[in-house]
Amino acid sequence: MIKILVYVAIILAIFAIGYVVRVYELATSLKGKKQHEVTDSDNRMMGKIMLTFLVVFFAFVIWNLESFGPKMLPESASEHGVGLDWLFNFNMTILFFVFTITHIFLFYFAYKYYGRTGNTATYFPHNNKLEMIWTVIPAIVLAVIIIFGLKAWNTITAPASDNAIVIQLYSQQFQWTARYSGTDNKLGDSNYKLITDTNPLGMDDNDNKGDDDIIVKNEFHIPLGKEVEFKLNSRDVIHSAYMPHFRAQMNCVPGMTTMMHFTPRITTQQMRDKLNNQKFDYILLCNKICGVSHYNMQMTIIVDTEIDYKVWLHAQATHKSQVNASAAKPVAAK
Amino acid sequence: MSAEAHAHPDAHTGHDDHHHHEESFVSKYIFSMDHKVISRQFLITAVIMATLAMGMSFLFRLQLAWPGEHFAIINFILGDKWGKDGIMAPEMYMALVTIHGTIMVFMVLTAGLSGTFSNLLIPYQVGARDMASGFLNMLSYWFFFLSSVFMLAGFACETGAASGGWTVYPPLSALPQAMDGSKLGMTMWLVSMSLFIVSSLLAGLNYIVTILNLRTKGMSMTRLPLTIWAFFVTAVLGVLSFPVLFSAALLLISDRSLGTSFYLSDIYIGGQALEQTGGSPILYEHLFWFLGHPEVYIILLPALGITSEVISVNARKPIFGYRAMIGSIMAIGFLSFIVWGHHMFITGMNPFLGSVFVFTTLLIAIPSAVKAFNYITTLWKGNIRYTPAMLFAIGLVSTFISGGLTGIILADSALDIPIHDNYFVVAHFHIVMGVSAILGMLAGVYHWYPKLFLRHMNKKLGYIHFWGTFISAYGVFFPMHFLGLAGVPRRYYSNSAFPMFDNLVDINVFITCFAMLAALVQLVFLFNFFYSMFRGPKSEQNPWGANTLEWTTPMAHTHGNWPGKLPTVYRWPYDYSKPGKPQDFCPQTVPLEEGEIDGGGH
Hints:
The complex is a heterodimer. By secondary structure, chain A is an alpha+beta fold. Chain A folds into two domains: about 40-155, no CATH class; about 165-325, Cupredoxins -  blue copper proteins (Immunoglobulin-like, Sandwich), CATH 2.60.40.420. Chain A has helices spanning about 1-30, 40-70, 80-110, 130-155, 270-275, 305-315, 320-330; strands at about 165-170, 175-180, 215, 220-225, 230-235, 240-245, 250, 260, 280-285, 300-305. In chain A, β1 and β2 (about 175-180) form a beta hairpin. In chain A, α2 (about 40-70) runs antiparallel to α3 and α3 packs antiparallel against α4 (about 130-155). The two termini of chain A are about 55 Å apart. By secondary structure, chain B is mainly α. Chain B has a single domain, classed as Cytochrome C Oxidase, Chain A, CATH 1.20.210.10. Helix content of chain B is about 60%, strand content about 0%. Chain B is built from 17 helices and two strands. Chain B has a two-stranded antiparallel ribbon. Chain B is globular, with a radius of gyration of 24 Å. Chain B starts with 8 loop residues before the first helix and ends in a 67-residue tail after the last helix. Chains A and B meet through α1, α2, α3, α4 and β7 of A and α5, β1, α9, α10 and α11 of B.
């Protein structure tokens, strides 16, 4: 019943607007005006609104920067991220300058040259010198942007050093698992065909390299000032390991291993103190649509001092010990 | 290929023969082969699809601003299954996001924009009786229509519409076990897209052939309006890139239904290890973006073409740097084929390959900058007449600049790492591609409404529509950059699972308020659009004082466009306010005077 009433109301409203416009049009045609023709006063009004818009728009942009700017991510918690943030600000300064200049010209001309009867536009079809200038200048600016950008890109994507701590991040709908490579700093082999409820990563127990591996869920720890190399895998669909505080991201693709590495520079506790928020945590999110709970696929990242990290890691059970433990209490437990 | 060779005098009489046939309603309005009717069919279908897709965004914006809140309207529209107690189900959220994107990108901004204006303007502005093949043209509309129906029909599936995002990356989209949206709804999506690609190819081939072969006497390539240049390059891009998407879709269909493993390898899902090995989802990403990036320009170039024309006509000035504009259209078209990898910087692609794509992508900024500067210079010392179309064209220049600039950040692979796939990207492409193309399309609708429906739209409502749309577009998409810089990933049903996003709720509320304003203002447009079709004041033949050939035809829908002979063209289309002319415009059909130089020469 309510649905029908809503529909009827909408239809009546449309008719009502139709009649208002009709009456308005009849009234203007009685005055002998062609309502679609643009008059000088229309031009003047639109020109002034253009200029007003310019002012309001920049006020809006500044207000956005002031009120939303502080909500942006805190300073980078990884070493390469500091350089990236600098590069971002550098590029943004150039772009903001271009944005400002072009918008001032665009809207100021839109105001200054609003049409007046009797005025004639200047016939100015082209000017090679001008066109050359605004082809060459953007090309130079872009060259600078490209050079700085590629320099940063090459540093970030260069292979990790040999003594980087190797950690596998394993993704599946809808959770993350981290596997530490243990004392040998080598991950044991795994195969998706070996996956069972008790072996969620499909680890191959014939491979001794996996004995000292450590598997953790919910949160993982990394040490301050040590390079960490992540090897990313996926069990089912594409996920993306996104660590915004570390300015790091890489997709996890089923069937292949992807890699990224960085060096943390601020511990969780230091960041909590900086932000004055004792509940703050670094987070690993999924940033590639992966299914219905995509929006809640997360893992906490804790950056410890090196000593705390070692203590924590030492307290975790190795893969071998877990296998032995589950073998020790077999069927009876079920 | 001289234009003179293509003026066939016999073709005129041939047309005149069946000029006076009484046509039935079906052949005149439904299965019509007349470019003007097909153009209107595309436009009206696109307006309906755009309204639906905007309605979808309105629903998911409600969810983003007030997650967990009960909305009667959500229950009213989505029913108990997807909107129980007025709360949107996560499955529905993802389906809405996916179908909103697909409809906007393909149905509205590809078919709607090119379909409407290429069809309307190519025969008119090159001086042809109709498209090269009216029959293929008709087929292209009906394939598009079917494709739209299939796209919407996804929502009628019990398991819901496709919901893997508009890019539908496998394995998510390939495996029905991965989510409900990858079941029947995904099949519907693939069927719809396959039909769409057929439609797009038929249309594109027709556009290319018509522009190359049916130009009237005197209409050399360098006398073509920039609209036609834009449609031409767009059609070439479409014809070269859509088949690649088709192959991607075929392989995906095969993986879904025939047990192949083009995109699948080493997958354990739903409690079992799949047999498929050796494939790679990265292959799909390459194929998809090989279309996907040219697609951005398939959307944008026609809007830029329309803007060139509208700005020039209403500033009463020649477009500044006509040849540079053609050059930049071609440069953008060419470069668009070698930049697709910038969508894949963090897929694990070789970093060196990434560097190459950084370089090619940033090169595109140069022709784009030239276009923007040329638009601004066209306004300089003009005598600007503010028709609603002119407002939309100026709006496009603004959004093209502000959205294009953030593209420079995203194209820089190192800077892309922390913002890839988050709201910064959403803000960027909505402003530069979505809003710009929509503004260009609306400029075209207001400007050529007299040619489409022989009447005028209401000017005052047009003014309200423009300012409302323009302001709310920035209101919606500008703050989204900050969500991105705060690290919010896109396609999240809700941000409430992460305490770090708690302080961003007010930005989302702010955005949704502007989205509602934007939706409201579009009602003004819809009303104006449909009302003026029947009640708008009748238009005279050349209401804007324009030079191009479409305004030399009578204000009636005559079969064959020109009642008598085809017009002969003597000059380029931008002789506005040329010194020594009696009026501030000089149509292309006016012969050159003694000693007068054509094409903006002094």
